[in-house]
Amino acid sequence: MHTLLDLRGSIPKFILITDGKYHDSNALDVIPFYVMDKAYVDFEAWFRINTAGAFFVTRAKSTLLYSIVEQY
Predict the structure, then answer these.
(1) Cα torsion for 3, 62, 51, 28, to the nearest 10°?
(2) With contact defined as beta carbons under 8 Å apart, do 15 and 33 qualify?
(3) Percent with pLDDT over 70 in the chain
(4) Of 4, 47, 52, 53, which has the fewest CB atoms closer than 10 Å, so is most exposed?
């Protein structure tokens, strides 16, 4: 079960019920949330989020190769 909670209330805003083989990262296309754990390494999904003009926050895995292109 993948659940989106509205923190202003106690009722879930969205519930997606799947079998145990459905990986959480697949729910990215269905659940409108953009804060995720480092287990959600899905560059295609991140590209779609970015292309839509949205932002996301995630923790990088220690093996991720990256370079800083801009710093505030």
Answers:
(1) -20
(2) no
(3) 85
(4) 53
